[in-house]
Design goal:
The chain has 13 helices and no strands. It has helices at residues 2-15, 20-33, 36-61, 69-86, 92-121, 125-145, 177-194, 196-206, 208-213, 218-243, 259-270, 277-298, 303-321. Helix 3 (36-61) packs parallel to helix 7 (177-194) and helix 11 (259-270) packs across helix 12 (277-298). The two termini are 32 Å apart.
Amino acid sequence: MVALLLGAVIIALAQKSVTAPAEAYSSLFRGAFGDPSAWSNTLARAMPLLLTGAAVFVALAAGLFNIGAEGQLSVGGLAAAVVGITFKSLPAPLLLGLSLLAAMAAGAAWGYLPAYLKVKRGAHEVITAILLNYVAQNTTRYLATGPLREPGGAAGQTAEVGATLSRLSPNYDLHWGLVIAAVAVALTAVALRRTVWGYETRAVGQGPGAAEAAGISVARVQINAMLISGALAGLAGAVVILGEVPFRRFPSDFYGSGYGFDGLAAALLAGGSAWALFPAALLFGGLASGAEQMTFDVGTPKQIVSVVQAILIIAVAARLVVRRPGNRPVSHTPGSEVIPPSVAAPEPGSL
């Protein structure tokens, strides 16, 4: 609400009209949820955010901040495309499964690197993940425009993959990737609350020192969390490449789609419950889907949606800085990031 209200003030000032915010938001809502086609576009936008949001959420639960989801998504998408191109002779269901597994393996490997550097060398995962994002961006771009470029193709992209995710309905662009994303989020939510792995992950995220004293290996838990986090982000890349109509091949500019960074925002907005990733991803998907309609109907620049998203992220991030009355600051040792109870999966006393 804070983000929408501040966005309304900006719209009113920019368009010099007190009625402009109501008209803009009404058009935005119609573009996002006004009819089945709008819902289809919104869900399509939210689909990869469910997976990247789950990826960041798992890392947060273990006390890590995976800002490298964008890079993990890119290498995962490229791996899915490579397998889908190389083994076209395989039966479609088998090829599709191998492509998804390859994407998860590539994303997990990319997520492993910052985790290993953190637990073995003390390097902060935020710094190393950001640097690895640049490596992923330039490596995938080089491969898509060089060795893996489609022969005779005009654009910098790979050839079309041999197996794709089929549509859920012939009338809309939604495909089975939505089901995969929803199941992945549900499994993540259940596993974090109902398994030994989830208990250990939340314990480390809540207090690594106490977890270590209880016999839990913090290094093992954090590495496993980043492996799973990277796998989910890589799966998001495969879902986009194998399912969305504009793709079905890997383009050189795939990095920068924003799915990884928007997924991070969705995970922060979800707070302490993985189930909250569903409305969080739907919100960001609706903002992205309705922006074009808002511009077309009332002339409000679609960039205002980016402003609203930025304010939203600032408002959510404020919870990490501002303590409630009576709360004591969370202490941590150098090199060990501790996520406050409002962000980590467990609530106080729930362990």
